Amino acid sequence: MGSSYKDFRAFPDPVQDAMGYALYQAQIGEKHGSAKPLKGFGGTGVQEIVTDHVGDTFRAVYTVKFATAIYVLHAFQKKSKSGIKTPTVDLELIRRRLKAAEADYKVQLGKGKAS
Fold it and tell me: CA 75, CA 4: separation in Å to the nearest integer?
């Protein structure tokens, strides 16, 4: 969703590899050991992958709320402004993209592509 793909592709290769495998596991219905529910989204529908690389922390947030699709909602490098807490601006972006993903999924489902 949004710039997530472009942002993800800007991550260092080892981070892309680790997160890519975690996303693959989500696609086949499994959960990678580094994936955990993102707080503030009421359950396990929104997951976060955190990967450290050369002193930096990278995060990818995705949703597993849909039966036949995984949507990557946000991919970003964590800047230490508030400890481990996800900054409000990022949470707001994730919420907006989750709503957009829900709308997109309904459209795709109506076209028969999401079933």
Answer: 5
Residue 115 within a domain: no
Tell me 11's DSSP state.
S
- DSSP 3-state assignment of 9? helix
- What is the rounded distance in angstroms from the CA atom of residue 93 to the CA atom of residue 38? 13
Q: Over its length of 115 residues, how does the chain's per-residue pLDDT go in tens digits?
A: 899 999 999 999 999 999 999 999 999 999 999 999 999 888 889 999 999 999 999 999 999 999 889 999 999 998 765 567 788 899 999 999 999 999 999 998 877 665 5
CATH number, position 37: 3.30.2310
Q: What span, in angstroms and rounded, lies between the C-alpha atoms of 60 and 89? A: 15
3-state secondary structure of 24: helix
Sort 96 into a burial class: Cβ within 10 Å, 0-12 / 13-18 / 19+: middle
